[in-house]
Amino acid sequence: MSVSTLQRLFKAAYGMSVMAFQRSERLNAARALLMEGRLTVGEAGYRAGYSTVSNFSSAFQRNFGYPPSACMRR
């Protein structure tokens, strides 16, 4: 199967590209880590594959509609 065929079939099945799915899964994992309350926003972002806190925060806000700090246990 070609790469383009796989990407097209994946998008038809999941409603998003492979990259968007991967990003969504990484952000969901980071949100779960933040909700446990053991990591800072920077640490969760790093574990999700982001090199800067600002990029992680922007992607998180776009995906969930609220900043990552809102997930942290107080």
TrEMBL record:
<keyword id="KW-0238">DNA-binding</keyword>
<dbReference type="GO" id="GO:0043565">
    <property type="term" value="F:sequence-specific DNA binding"/>
</dbReference>
<keyword id="KW-0805">Transcription regulation</keyword>
<dbReference type="InterPro" id="IPR018062">
    <property type="entry name" value="HTH_AraC-typ_CS"/>
</dbReference>
<feature type="domain" description="HTH araC/xylS-type">
    <location>
        <begin position="1"/>
        <end position="74"/>
    </location>
</feature>
<dbReference type="Pfam" id="PF12833">
    <property type="entry name" value="HTH_18"/>
</dbReference>
<keyword id="KW-0804">Transcription</keyword>
<dbReference type="InterPro" id="IPR009057">
    <property type="entry name" value="Homeodomain-like_sf"/>
</dbReference>
<dbReference type="GO" id="GO:0003700">
    <property type="term" value="F:DNA-binding transcription factor activity"/>
</dbReference>
<protein>
    <recommendedName>
        <fullName>HTH araC/xylS-type domain-containing protein</fullName>
    </recommendedName>
</protein>
<dbReference type="InterPro" id="IPR018060">
    <property type="entry name" value="HTH_AraC"/>
</dbReference>
<dbReference type="InterPro" id="IPR053142">
    <property type="entry name" value="PchR_regulatory_protein"/>
</dbReference>
